[in-house]
Amino acid sequence: MICLEKFERKDYSELIDSVKNAKDLMQFGGPEFTFPLTESQIDRTLSDENRMAFRVANSSNGNTIGHCEIYFKDDSAKLGRILIIDEKQRGKGIGEKMVSLLLQFIFENRKERNIELNVFDFNIGAQKCYEKVGFTINPDKKLLREVEGETWTALNMVLNLEEWKNKN
């Protein structure tokens, strides 16, 4: 089992160490960060009162599994910076559990019911994970990002929290 814990300064180094290059950082953190990731960059983004960051931990032993965030804007919530640190743990349903915990947190603690996230089009595993939870691709919104001379396309995915809760 996994649980969400408040992401704190003591967790910074583990996150920083898990991001090995500029492409990994763009995939994890988007254009707000530049490689190498630093504590000051994390401080800056987390100083935004509309952002909540979580350490994802193994409930039985307390070990860090990953990281995830929620950004609240207007009447919606955006999930992001979803990372399973140990690549060997990816593809085992942990991402689904992380996203479900984030949705449950929003449902129980916030009023926002329109949820969205962005995922790069080549990240098929993540897209399938989000679809399993209930997200669908919003065909009207795409983002382009430049990464080391390449252009990446980010797809926008959406979910209505009331509909999700009714199905679960």
Provide the descriptors you would attach to this structure in a database record.
168 residues; 33% helix; seven-stranded mixed beta sheet; alpha+beta
Question: How does this structure look, described?
Answer:
- By secondary structure, the protein is an alpha+beta fold.
- Helices cover 33% and strands 37% of the residues.
- It is built from six helices and seven strands; from the N terminus they run βαααβββαβαββα.
- A seven-stranded mixed beta sheet has the order 1-2-3-4-5-7-6.
- Helix 4 links the parallel strand 4 and strand 5.
- Helix 4 packs across helix 5.
- The longest helix has 16 residues.
- The chain is globular and about 40 Å long.
Task: Note the topology.
Elements: E1 2-6, H1 12-18, H2 22-29, H3 39-46, E2 51-58, E3 64-73, E4 76-84, H4 94-109, E5 114-120, H5 124-133, E6 136-147, E7 150-160, H6 161-167
Parallel strand pairs: 4-5
Antiparallel strand pairs: 1-2, 2-3, 3-4, 5-7, 6-7
Task: Give the ordered list of helices and strands.
Answer: EHHHEEEHEHEEH
Shape: globular
Helix-residue proportion: 25-40%
| Count of distinct strands | 7
Structural Rg:
15 Å
The poorly predicted ranges are none
Q: Kindly state the mean pLDDT as a whole number?
A: 96
Tell me the structural class. Answer: alpha+beta
Biggest β-sheet description: 7 strands, mixed
Number of helices: 6
Distance between the termini: 18 Å
Q: Strand arrangement, largest sheet?
A: 1-2-3-4-5-7-6
Which band does the percent of strand residues land in? 35-45%
